[in-house]
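Quick one: sequence plus zinc ion SMILES, need C-alpha cells.
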Amino acid sequence: MKIETSGVLIALHPFNERDCVARIFTPDCGVLVGMMRGAAVARKNRPMIGQYGNLSWGARLDSQLGVFHWEAEKNLTAQIIMNPRALLCMNTAFEILQNLLPEREAYPILYSETLGLLNNLSVGDVNAYLKWEIILLRELGYALDLSSCAGCGAVNDLAYISPRTGRAVCIACGAPYADKLYKLPINLGVTGRFLESVCVAQGGQMPPMRKMLKID
Ligand SMILES: [Zn+2]
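Reply:
Sure thing.
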C-alpha cells in the first residue's frame, strides 16, 4: 500500500539512535504513522514538528508500520516558537491530534482548521485555540450548540451548557440543575471538560500538555 500526499508533521519520537516514528496529519488520509529513517541523525533537512511538506508513505502490509519519505516545503512554526503561549497552544493541538484521531481516517475540516490555527498562532492570536478546540469537539461528534436553550428554545439569557448534550440552557430552565451544568461563556475550562469526556470515552486520558493551558 502506498500513499502520496501532503501534510503537517505533528509528532516525532525517537525509535532508535537513528530513526524516528513520525505522525503526519494529512487532508485526505488523516493521521499517518510511520518510520522516518535517519531522522534522528540527519545533518541537513532534519525533520521538525510543524513542518508542512510532501510525503510518500508505504507499507507492504496494511497492518505494518509504514515508512515515510518526507520532503519539507516550509516551516509553519518560525513565528510561533517566539511566543511561549502560542507554542504551548500548537504543541497541545498536536498532542491532542496524535492522541485522539484514529489512524488513516480523514478529517478534512479539522485539517484545514489546524492550518488556520497555525496561521493565527503565527500572528499571536492565541484565542484561535479555543475556536479550534470547539471545532475539534464537533468533528469528533461532540458538537456544542449555543444557539438556543435546550429546555424552552429561548435565545436570550443563556447561562449554562449541559455536559450531557452539549446544548445551551437558559437561566430559568437551568436554575434547578445549576450544580450539574457548566457555566457559560465557553472558555478553555468548559471545552476542557468536554475534551476530557472524549478522552475517557476513548479509554485514554486528557493529554498532559492540555492541562497546562490556563482558563481565560
Ligand atoms: Zn430555557
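Residues 149, 151-152, 154, 170, 172-173 surround zinc ion (CB under 6 Å). The chain has two domains: 1-75, 77-144+186-216.
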